[in-house]
Amino acid sequence: xxxxxMRKYTLRFNTNIDRFLDWKIQNTNLSKAEYIRINLLxxxxxxxxxxxxxxxxx
Length: 58
Known about the structure:
Order of helices and strands: HHH
Structural class: mainly alpha
Number of strands: 0
Helix content: 55-70%
Largest sheet: none
Shape: elongated
Oligomer: single chain
């Protein structure tokens, strides 16, 4: 990803989500932000309705 196309967001998570992220990234070289970003991109890629929407306007 290019930095000029990135947008910054502030997310607030409850303790359970924060603990999950801590646990999930323990044995990886990923930060919490990278883990969330990767999984959002997977969610976008797997969302057929969104992919159909994109093809209609491209």
